[in-house]
Design goal:
- The chain is built from twelve helices and 19 strands.
- The strands form four sheets. Strands 13-14-15-16-17-18-12-19 form an eight-stranded mixed beta sheet. It has a four-stranded antiparallel beta sheet with strand order 2-3-4-9, with no helix packed on it.
- It has two domains: 85 residues, Rieske [2Fe-2S] iron-sulphur domain (Rieske Iron-sulfur Protein, 3-layer Sandwich), CATH 2.102.10.10; 266 residues, no CATH class.
- The protein is globular.
- By secondary structure, the protein is an alpha+beta fold.
- Helices cover 23% and strands 23% of the residues.
- It starts with a helix and ends in a 16-residue tail after the last helix.
- Bound molecules: FE2/S2 (inorganic) cluster and fe (ii) ion.
- The site of FE2/S2 (inorganic) cluster has 9 residues, from loops.
Length: 430
Amino acid sequence: MLTREQNDLLTQVGPATGMGKLLRCYWMPVAGVSEFDSIQSKPLKILGEDLVLYKDLSGRFGLVDRNCVHRRADLSAGMVEKQGIRCHYHGWLFSANGDCLEQPYEDTAHPEANSKSRLKIKSYPTEVKGGLIWAYFGQAPAPQLPDWEAFSWKNGFVQVVISSVPCNWFQCQENSIDPIHFEWMHENWGNRLRTNKLEFGAKHLKVDFKEFEHGFTYHRIKEGSDEQDEAWQIGRVCLWPNGFFLGEHFEWRVPIDDENTLSVTWKYTRVPKEMEPFEQSVIPTWYGPVFDEKGQPINTHVMNQDFLAWMGQGTVADRTKEHIGASDKGIVMMRKRFFDELQNHAHQKPLKAIILDASMNHHIPLPMVYGHQVTQSRSIQEIKEHKSLYPFYKSYVFQAGQPDWVKKMSSQAFGMEVEEFDGIVIPRQT
Ligand code: FES
Ligand SMILES: [Fe+2]
């Protein structure tokens, strides 16, 4: 149980808050690169700030204040040009680093005043990696954008899946260090929804949590496994400060504001042997729905079940009313680390998992359970015969609503038909 003040400290992300300042020290994924194959700009709210993300005609991304510095028109309706974005209202032009490059009428009427040289709009640096656009909201200089090894894996079909979940980011991130919920929500509850049978799967017998440089790992032993299992030996990664790494995919929980979170998934699937060598020309980005057509939370797919649970905790979970149990040891560790890091930030001390040295930022490996399942080359036949692997090829099990055009792209990449997930979660095995 936390105090009201502690809960506020973990959950509030505005620019003046402790957590807002801490999270601004890390790069955040904010959109998919391929979105800008069909659009030129879009409004974006991140960490409570209203912004515009655009791609200029030179192919560079810019992230600037949503409202024009002149008379506050919406720059997301602006025109992109070679050197930035031009406000549609009176034509002022801004570069990606926020400089005002042109004020057409003022430049004509009073060229000697050069008033544009004194104007700047808010802007944030962006980088592109893994098919994602990343933004840095903190003070210069920006640290390295982590170059996770997974981004360099070959012969894979990658997709980016994004959803806006109407609840606070911290309850989403607590899910990254919560092994017991797999058994109950994704397996037992998920199967109950589908089959209406009162049957429970293998129980967790033991869990453990460890901290490492880039976050935490959680370790589990379930009925039918033992201490030799990679699930115990290696563990899964709760990535600092707002990610989750499960081997074949990352999930990030990016605060939109105090009451909404952008769920960003990067999903890799190794293509079958027959399809190699495979070069992906475009990493598709799609936006997954959180609610069905009746307005009910979708409960059929793994991450939709997560979303449903997070939203069920309340818009901002009230941790003054909770009763922490034995399964929550990792959550307690993570909260303590956040409180410690908030102090470190306040006292300008070094922060966890910040990479400053570019020479240390090359294909950084992360602990990975059942890594051979993710990166090993297998034939179509071998995949089809693999009871726990095939479902991850047959359909996108993580979120509902994969568009047909992405199904088609993945069917072509896999050399087998991809269809919508039927909603039965098959526990992953070695
Ligand atoms: S409001 Fe943007 S140029 Fe006038
Ligand atoms: Fe989950």
